[in-house]
Amino acid sequence: MAVRKFWPLIFTATVLFSACGRGRNRVLEVAYVSAPQVYLRDHVAAVYNKTGVVKNGDRVQVLERERRFVRVQTDNGTEGWLEQRYLVSQEVYDGFQKLANEEKNDPVQATGTTRNDTNLHVEPGRETDHLYLLEQGTKVSILKRATAEKALPGAAPKPASQGRKTESSAPPMEDWWLIRDPQGHVGWVLERMVDLDVPLDIAQYAEGQRIIAFFVLDQVTDGDKKVPQYLVALTEPKDGMPFDYNQVRVFTWNVKRHRYETAYREHNLNGVLPVAVSQENFDKEGMLPVFVLRVKDDNGNVSERKYKLNTPIVRRVLAPGEVPQKPAARKRRR
After folding, report:
1. Measured distance CA(167)–CA(164) in Å, rounded
2. Do residues 110 and 214 lie in contact, with contact meaning Cβ atoms separated by under 8 Å?
3. Helices within 50-204 (DSSP H only)
């Protein structure tokens, strides 16, 4: 009789206890670790025990929040507290996934190596969201270029200028690379954080310009070795230019003198990446390397120009119906 009398109270307490447990372990959201490595702690205090460790890119479930800390659970079931600033949202992760999917077929424009540990951003800009960390010495593939306004710490806002903007009033800009890392992650890194792996044999001919893309067109035989011939895209040695490149050069190998020579150069281009390189059959000439440049006109329209290399001659390949442009006439001196 006593058991039957207290049964409603026991049942109510059990339900409440279960409800509290379910609430405590309810998943609030999914997040991802943006720091290189973070220890999980058993509670929020100055002195704590380590319950586990999470690393860059790890997925966690957020179970509870307390001030600037969150309690998380990893995919293997480990629980612990860490600071909120070490996490990014599912939305940021999805942004990287979308970027990787959109750019998966982009041709590689160059390869490079990171100078220092650097963050991979979802958009160009130092203040944009970042998730993955590239360690110093990571090999990356360069896909595209963009510019973003340079954030100047502690800089006072400039007063609005009257009339046209002058060059001095324009905000400073920085160049950014869209890269792909060895794990297939795609994102933006600051251009100066990556050293391009330009072969020294052709890098020495840059003549003070910045090489931003390079491609092997083909190889020629010189004695018992194969020597690559290159297409190189260059730009002015400063950030924020309105074009990706403004000149190209083709370096061919002279088998008699055993050295590289400039077979072709073109200046004053408003070039846009990517550059495409392939092979094409030209009947009597046979299979030749070709490259396609994307060039923007004064109205912002982008057109393609195709070229072929029949060593050591580079010629323009006109599309059906395309008329070659005549060079500007020179004025006679009197």
Report:
1. 10
2. yes
3. 90-102, 200-203
Which residues of the chain are under the pLDDT cut of 70? Answer: 1-24, 153-169, 324-334
Q: What is the DSSP letter of 23?
A: H
For the chain, what is the mean pLDDT?
88
Question: What's the CATH number of domain 103-150+173-197, 3.40.50.880, 2.60.120.10, 2.30.30.170, 3.40.50.300?
Answer: 2.30.30.170
Nearest in space to 146 (alpha carbons), one of 191, 195, 99, 210: 191
Kindly state the DSSP code that residue 167 receives in the 8-state scheme: G
Instruction: Spell out the residues 6+ positions from residue 123 whose beta carbon is closer than 8 angstroms to its own.
Output: 129, 188
Q: Rounded distance, CA 247 to CA 268, Å?
A: 6
CB atoms within 10 A of CB 294: 17
Token duo for residue 145: 């270029």
Q: pTM value? A: 0.83
pLDDT of residue 308: 98
Asked whether the beta carbons of 290 and 300 are under 8 A apart, the reply is no
